[in-house]
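JOB MANIFEST
job_type = single_chain_structure
chain_count = 1
residues = 288
[input]
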Amino acid sequence: MKRLIALLAMLAALVVLSSCNWTGNNVGTLTLSAPESGYPPMTVTLAAIGVDGGQYHWEVDGRSWDQGSNTLLVTIEFLPCEVTVTWTGDGIPQTATETIWLENTGPVIGQPLIRRTIGMTIDPESKSIIVPTTKYLVTFPGAYDNEGGPATLINLTVFTPHWDGGRYNTTFCPPYEGINPPEPAEWRVVIGYAREIDNAAYFFSMWDSPLLEDYNLPWCPMSWWMAGYLGSNCHEYWPDSAVPQGTTVITATFEDEMGARTTESFTYPTTAYIPCDERQPVQKALCL
């Protein structure tokens, strides 16, 4: 009986020792509390949970801290971001890692503003019907980023599906600053008195220009002066036969500062095209 009692006492002691370290202090399991996602810059509170005392080594966004506190208040500039904490105390050191993900949606484009231009004058009214051979300025006054950052136009196409099986109209951003012609480096135009308009471009309805030899720039219609572009006779590049009434499709892609993109298309009724030779004299003069 005495041997049985001694054996039971020994087993009880082993159970106690298995749940404690050799110093007699309880050691739990380290876990890291951090937000699942957010939008930078964001200030967050990180917490190391499950262990007591000791020292905490934090690594966040390429930076590190050593401290005795199990919480850290830090501003994070870039997401996603990996957060790591290492605890050193009574027992084996432990490490916990979590990832804070980027919470972001694409920009809102809003309805484009399509305005006709005559010489240096820009019609303040937005047009709902496109007229061939007419010059238009396209802007996006309603574009914005849901998270409050900038929304930037990165691509714009103007497509006429009923013209010769479908043709893209040439877009212009004077003064020309392209890095890979004919697409501009920035979708921005400069109008009278050096006024800049961001997220904007010009197009001439049903003008599909080839590139200028030795310039790698598109031709501009002769009757419409555009800074940085050379002009061309309209008979060479405007459609040379009547085109029936149809539509013009404007497609825009916007990007926010975190790389989220939104692409949307807008369709406008388009009147029939009448070749220059069939116009009244005043219309022919404008075309030339």
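[summary]
Residues 28 and 50 are 5 Å apart (CA to CA).
The chain has a mean pLDDT of 84.
exit_status = 0
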